[in-house]
Amino acid sequence: MAKKYYSGGIVYSTNPDFKLNEDKPEPEEAISPSNQLLKIRLDTKNRGGKAVTLVENFFGPQSEMIELGKKLKSFCGTGGSVKGNEIIIQGDNREKIFQWLLKNGFSKTKKI
Question: Could you tell me the pTM of the whole model?
Fold first, then answer.
């Protein structure tokens, strides 16, 4: 993903020492799995009739969310992706994902 900078309206500067004020993202703190309020739901909208299982409301670093997505895809034996704040797993795997999350410490998980 490309970084977006706010230049304050500056397009070009002749100053050789000029540096654009870069906004550095603050590192997100990891929340323990037992405090995560994850929601699992089935979605078929805008997917050509195909069903996908969505895991929503994950809070923490993007790298941990990607790692959780990889583990869930591997466990379910299907494809999927991580987009925005959602983990997308192909097919109706709500029960499998729910049981895996409970077994791995995500005790506040809900199926919708």
Answer: 0.73
